[in-house]
Prior knowledge:
The protein has 447 residues and is of the alpha/beta class. The protein has 16 helices and 17 strands. It has helices spanning 5-12, 49-61, 66-75, 81-84, 97-100, 102-118, 136-147, 166-177, 264-269, 283-299, 344-350, 363-369, 372-382, 386-400, 402-406, 417-420; strands spanning 64-65, 124-130, 156-162, 192-195, 201-205, 216-221, 230-235, 238-246, 254-258, 278-281, 301-310, 319-322, 325-327, 337-339, 342-343, 356-362, 409-415. The strands form three sheets. Strands 2, 3, 4, 5, 6, 11, 15, 16 and 17 form a nine-stranded mixed beta sheet that branches. Strands 1, 7, 8, 9 and 10 form a five-stranded antiparallel beta sheet that branches. Helix 6 packs across helix 7 (136-147). The protein starts with a helix and ends in a 27-residue tail after the last helix. Mean pLDDT is 86; it is low at 1-33, 35-47 and 87-94.
Amino acid sequence: MALPLARRALLAGRRRLPRPAAPPRAPAAAARLCSGAGGEAEAAGGAGAMLRHLARKLRASGPVTVAEYMREALTNPGQGYYTRRGGVGESGDFITSPEISQVFGELIGIWYISEWMAMGKPSTFQLVELGPGRGTLTEDILRVFKQLSSVLSKCDVSVHLVEVSPKLSEIQAVTLTGGKVPPSPEDESAYMKGISKTGIPIFWYRDIQDVPAGYSFYLAHEFFDALPIHKFQRTEKGWREVLVDIDPEVPDQLRFVLSPSRTPATQNFIQPEETRDHVEVCPEAGVIVQRLASRIEKDGGAALVADYGHDGTKTDTFRGFRNHKLHDVLSAPGTADLTADVDFSYLRKMAQGKTATLGPIKQREFLKNMGIDFRLQVLLQNSGDTATREQLLHSYDMLMNPEKMGDCFNFFALLPHHRLVHPDKKDKPESKSPLPPVAGFNELLLK
Length: 447
């Protein structure tokens, strides 16, 4: 496929060099990228307010599901990890692809414009990001939109961020608007709204259902991995759910236990054909994908998901991270990021045929298809010093190396069926010209 002129212009354009690359991580920190049940857990001293809260709850009502434990540890209004901290970046608990190199965000921005053009250049364009972190990825995408403003000149572009963390929404506001954004009146669905540094309106919501209906492009980068999961174990007596309970022998310490019998979640989420002995299921991810698929089917657009995960093959991937190191998931809850690999086969199933799906495809394949090699060469040619070139090469290695992010992260897309197959193709196969391939999931030829 010939690369559209706008995309070629951006990839080749002379512009500021990427932000400094993240420093090389210690071996333990790499586990934030790839799943695994092993690794040395970093013990945290002392039981905080969240642990005391959970201990009281468990003593009063008994064990809770892993999903309920994650929900408390991550999003409890007073002591939850994301609501209180949200450690993204070098000073936090993990670093994401956009924090490593702005080239990543540039290519994502190009993907959206490419799909917008392939779908006929609709007059409205809502960019909706779920869990935007520090706003770095959106900032890079908006910079692309600014550079290609002539292409989008007749399109009404707006940004809609779904964020539950007050702390992160404040950081996002500074990143994207250059300052603080006052809260909106309580009767409005958006709890904050402002104008980006490039002049595009931005709105903040706590739930995707609050985002206005309309032609939208959705983005979920490292979003689904933080949603609560249920864990199940096959036993001689059948499937049992893994629960979290207080350890009766050690004060203020938590432990995993198995449910004595089948739980409602076991009956609802374990498929008869399941062959694995240990399964993780994220019902909230299923609900969100259903909503995205319904919106795309009704209003048009697409959704791009980038996360580490698997296609229904892995088992125990639940783990924690604190200060870029593996952390015991049951130790000092509320002070560490808890995460589990995304099951893309489950997301595909939850789309329920309302949209077409593409992927998962490895991050290194997606970025290569998007032209990252060409962009890197242009930046290297334009860089004026050795240190900058080394940063560029290090960033590229982090994103593309199969042992780092290259094979651990995957891209997955939801698209309208008509984007891949003409509605009347069966009846009149010769009546329509071929549809353009979907960027990233197909190789792009630079001509």
